[in-house]
Design brief:
The chain is an alpha/beta fold. 30% of the residues lie in helices and 17% in strands. α8 links the parallel β9 and β10.
């Protein structure tokens, strides 16, 4: 992203989160202002400020499986490390998901794609959507773990609404296959850990090639749930306890 992205995110420092009691009314609310009504906003991207969570799920289950007709097992956390078309269905009609989500132990926040080769405005929108949806779920009474994702050049701006000393979730699905992707992931994880100082990390995906050596070196518990496509994932590794 280079100098261009650094200029985009390098804005005047702020004194703290800004409170908006009610977003501006729009006849066609295509950006879902109602999701963040009453939220505080932080950073140059107006990221909704999220509440902390402190959890260690034994199992996490994909959102598509949670919503499968006939499902009876809800003794787990739901996660949204899925394709954008699946997350788009939730975004377009989130209330339809609430009944089953409330049966779960909790949820992990949304993870709309923010690939580093995406145009900057698209990534900013998806970062914001992830926070907005997580904030809304927390306001519905769910335990919802903030999902953390950023790039080395934008971490301060993207993570401005995330809580410190909280459980966070990081999705690494398919991010360790290529050396270039792996390097970006490792650098991003270092930024996330340094900024948020997490209580523990729920890691979805492969932990090969030292991609989570940094938080482990800090004594932060990392709980790994290997990505196996859709379906239930058992708690695999627990370090740092």
């Amino acid at each position: 992203m280079g100098n261009i992205s650094k200029q985009l995110y390098a804005r005047e420092p702020e004194e703290g989160p800004r409170k908006r009691t009610k977003p501006a009314h729009h006849a066609r609310d295509v950006f879902h202002a109602w999701m963040v009504e009453g939220a505080e906003f932080a950073g140059p991207l107006d990221m909704p400020v999220l509440a902390a969570a402190h959890v260690d799920p034994d199992r996490i289950v994909a959102l598509s499986d949670v919503m499968r007709p006939g499902r009876r097992d809800f003794d787990c956390f739901g996660h949204a490390f899925e394709d954008d078309d699946i997350l788009g269905r939730f975004w377009n009609n989130p209330s339809a998901y609430l009944r089953k989500m409330r049966m779960l132990q909790g949820m992990i926040g949304l993870d709309f794609s923010v690939s580093y080769d995406f145009p900057v405005p698209l990534k900013e929108y998806n970062y914001w959507r992830n926070n907005a949806a997580t904030y809304w779920l927390q306001q519905q009474g769910l335990v919802c773990v903030p999902q953390a994702r950023c790039e080395p050049d934008n971490c301060e701006a993207v993570l401005a609404g995330h809580p410190k000393h909280s459980t966070i979730a990081i999705g690494a699905r398919s991010m360790v296959r290529r050396i270039g992707d792996r390097a970006v992931l490792k650098a991003s994880v270092e930024c996330i850990v340094d900024i948020l100082e997490p209580y523990n990390i729920l890691w979805y995906g492969s932990d090969l090639y030292g991609v989570i050596d940094y938080p482990r070196s800090k004594g932060i518990p990392v709980h790994v749930y290997p990505a196996k496509g859709r379906g239930e994932l058992d708690h695999h590794i627990e370090d740092g306890d």
